[in-house]
Each structure stands twice: as structure tokens, then as C-alpha cells.
Amino acid sequence: MKKRVLSGIRATGRLHLGNYLGAVKGMLELQKNPEYETFYMVADLHTLTTPYDKNTLSQSVRDVIIDYLAAGLDPKKSVLFVQSHVPEHLELAYLFSTVTTVAKMQHLPTFKEKVKQYPENVTMALLNYPVLMASDILIYKASLVPVGIDQEPHLEVTREIARRMNQEYGTDFPEPKRFATKGEYIPSLTGEGKMSKTVEGSYINLTDDLPIIKSKIAKIPTDAGKGSEIVGGVKTLMEFVELFEGLEEREGLERLYKTTGVRYSEIKEKLAGAIYRELEPIQKRRAELEKDPEYVDRVIREGAEKARKVAQETVAEVREKMGLR
Ligand code: TRP
Question: Taking Cα atoms as reference points, which of 27, 23, 137 lies closest to residue 83?
Fold first, then answer.
């Protein structure tokens, strides 16, 4: 049997460059690899764990599916679907919650961060977030998960649930590993922290045109162009140069920085062009997809059917092994 891959992105607005480099590029790479069967979803149920707008949710979900397609995920090669269309995820999450302690969930760094961010919103669903994520992955018996490094604690929980289930009930869940990409940590354009939708001025959208990209890149804070140590915004700039123009280009510039000095206006102009060249085909495909809503509907419908078939088998097996007959 082929090894399986599962990944998902929450539906909190359009994708940005950080999602693209940190998750979608890994998804694309694994989709190309014939050794894997790939399942990629939009985690709409997870979106409900933090404040959201019920009136725009379904459009946000659709937007992520369209971004997936525009970026090159292909429904002939990957199962593309919406999490809530496969309600078996919820059933398995409940069964998994019986082998998961509350204390463990409360101590996860990801949970603590959300508690700090939304102290009024510490719900059961939030506490259960990692259990649902474990279900997302294990319901397909996926062994590889292309996600950013910030999701590592959730994968640890997933592995622990797999082990417990296998021990207690004799299931055969794999212990999934994270599939890391080169762009797993994309720095913020502000020069501090990571690129994030919730930090203004930190991100580039997949839909940004060349003038917008130029003006955002121009705002990366820099210095006099010369020095012995590369830090802060200059380091961020160099990381982007490496991601979009290659390691050699970065090393060349870093050598100049430490000797004769660099001119940021030229570097930034060239970098903005390189970023736009990567995004332009995605934007063109998106414009095409927006003209064909029936196609998008069909992808979503057929994805759910394919995903459900596998999910139902796993749930039937787990129910049986747990004594629910
Ligand atoms: N928690 C992930 C994130 O915030 C989204 C997600 C939900 C996910 N279920 C998943 C990622 C399953 C990978 C696999 O990025």
C-alpha cells in the first residue's frame, strides 16, 4: 500500500507567502512523488476554535480550495476536501479523546498561546484542537504531514494517541512525522518574528501585484549596507533572497555586506521581481478558476466522497476494536 500524506490549513482568509512556502510547497512536492497518496483539506472545524465570522466562513473555505488549485494541487493526483464534509473526523476525535488526558492538552504551548490571545474564548473545542487534528491525520493512517514547525507539538500528541490506541485496542495507526520544507519558517517583513496574518505589515499575500510587493519589500528595515554581522531586517532580506533567488545569491550579497557594502534599493527591486515571478502564474490560474465556479464545486464534492470512503473504513475498524458493535 502507498504511504499516505495529510495536511490542512485553517480557513482564516486568503493564503499568504508564509502558508505557501511553509505548507503548500511541501504539499506540492509530495503530490509529485508517486510513492505517496496525498490528502489535503481545509480545516474549517478548527477555524471555529477562535473567533470567526459565520457569514464569511464558507467563502473563506472556498478561497483556500481555490488557492490550493491555483498553486498547483491537482484533484487528479490529490484528494482535496473540506474537513466538515467528512463528519467521521469528529467521531474519531471523540473516540481519541477517551485516551487523551486534560492535563496534557492544557500544557501544550499552542493551547497556552491561544488562551493568552483570546482569554474569553477558552472552550472545550479549543482544548480538543490537537485531538481533532490527530483524528484528521490518523483517519487516513497518514505517516507524513507537511506543516510548519509550529505544529510539532500537535504531531507529538498525534503520535502519542496512535501509540495508545495501538496498545489498548490493537489498531495499526502509524506514528506520523512532519515533512519539513526549506521555507518552514518565513520571517516577518517587519524584521521581527514570523510572517503572520495577524501582524500588520508582516506578510505578502499570494494575490499581491508587483507594485504592492515592491512597496512591502521596500519597508523591510535595513541599515547602512555594511557591517560584520547580519541581523534583524537585513537577515530577513537575505533569507528571502535565498528562498527566491538561491543560496549562491545570498552568499554573494553577504560577502559584499562584510566587505565593500551593498545597495538595498537594487537588492530589493530584484527580490520583488523574483517573488512576483513565482506568484504571477498562481494569480493567473486563480483568475481562471474564479470564472469556473462549477469546476470548483465539483472538486469539493468529489474530494469529500473520496475522503469519506477511507474515513468510514477507519472509523468502522476503530468502533469494532473499541467494542462498539
Ligand atoms: N493546526 C494546523 C495549523 O494551524 C491546521 C491543521 C488542522 C492541520 N488539521 C491538520 C495541519 C492536520 C496538518 C494536519 O496550521
Answer: 137
Give 181-240 pLDDT, tens digit per residue: 888 788 999 988 888 877 888 999 999 999 999 999 999 999 999 999 999 999 999 999
Residues 127 and 176 in one domain: yes
Count the neighbouring beta carbons within 10 Å of the beta carbon of residue 118: 14
- Residue 30 and residue 73 in contact, taking contact as beta carbons nearer than 8 Å: no
- Tell whether 203 is covered by a domain: no
Locate the ligand 1 atom nearest the alpha carbon of residue 9 and give its number. 5
Ligand 1 proximity of 147 Cβ (cutoff 6 Å): yes
The whole-angstrom distance between residue 299's C-alpha and the CA centroid of its chain comes to 20
Q: Give the whole-angstrom CA distance, residue 25 versus residue 243.
A: 12
pTM across the whole model: 0.92
Q: 10 alpha carbon to ligand 1 midpoint, in Å?
A: 7
In a domain, 242, yes or no: yes
Measure the CA–CA gap between 189 and 203, rounded to whole angstroms: 6
